[in-house]
Every structure is written in structure tokens, then in C-alpha cells.
Amino acid sequence: MLRKTWWHRQWKKLRAKVPTHDEIFASRWLKPLAPYFNKPYFWVGSRRKVALAVGIGLFAGMMPGPTQMLTALLLAYVLRANLPVSLVTTLYTNPLTYLPLYYAAYELGWYVLAGQNGEAMMSFADWKQVMGNGSELRHALAEQARYLLVGVPMLSGSLAVIGYVTVRVVWRWRTTYKWRHRHVDDGQK
Fold first, then answer.
1. How confident is the model at residue 50 (pLDDT cuts 50, 70, 90)?
2. Fewest beta carbons within 10 Å, which of 1, 32, 76, 132?
3. pTM
């Protein structure tokens, strides 16, 4: 009981600090966007809308730097997903996670394009040797970029599907658990 009360207090504190969508669109900067984004379906917290928003945010989070939130916003608009969740979910990529994620995408792309043919990935020594010559470096970067061009969409799509399914399953499990728990409590009274 104490734990539930503590979580409820924390949730109330957080909700008090987060502006409503009407307060957001009262801003002079965002007021011109109100006709497009001040629709109820962009703010609904249903299982389907939130799961779709998490998938969109995970997909858009792998986009290059400044385009992440814009991509999430446009996809959420087209697919009518929950806007705040879409935008916040893109924040899983940050200065600490960006390089490991892109390296994983590079390795995934390498495995799909070259790994099955037995080609070796460029070693650190190979990169060191190429760094001295500008034309060789450009050629190496162009050649290696194809792995990213394949790996990034594959990784971001995989993360989106995993996030979507996870939210749907966890939400369903939690709802079922609460429903069963409520009926057990009602039977005991």
C-alpha cells in the first residue's frame, strides 16, 4: 500500500509539471500548428495509439541528428499516433547511445551485404592507413557507407517492431492482471 501511494504521489507531481495540450498550443510559437495537431486522437493514451507512437519514436530515433523529432512528428501526424509519446521516445538516442547504435547498424549492414560472402570488415589498422590519403579516405567512406544505408533502416525498423509489440503485450498483461486482481478482491469482500 505504501509503494502504491508513493508512485501515485510521484505521478501527480509529474502530471502537475507537464502542460496540457491546450496550454502547449496557447504558446505564440505553436499556435499556428494548433489546427493541425490539436486533435483528440493525437493525445489519446490508448494501447494502440501509444504502441504505435513508441514504434514511431524508436524508428525516428535512428534518423540523423536534427531530423529525429521532425521525422517522429510527421510520422505521428500521418499515422495519427500519440504525439508526446512519439517525440519523447526518440530520446533513446543521445550522445551516449548514438555511436553504439550506429556501430550495431553498421555491423548489421555489413553482415547482410558482405558478411555472407566472406568479406572481412575493415580493421582499425586499415582505417589508420587510409586516413593519410584524402582520396583513399573518401573512397573507403563511400564504400563503407553502404553498410550504414542498409543497417540503419533495418535496425530502426526492428527496434520499432520490438517496441510496438512490447508495449502491446505489456499493456495487455497489465490490464488482464489488474482485471483479475480486481475480481479476486471483489470476491473476498
1. very high
2. 1
3. 0.77
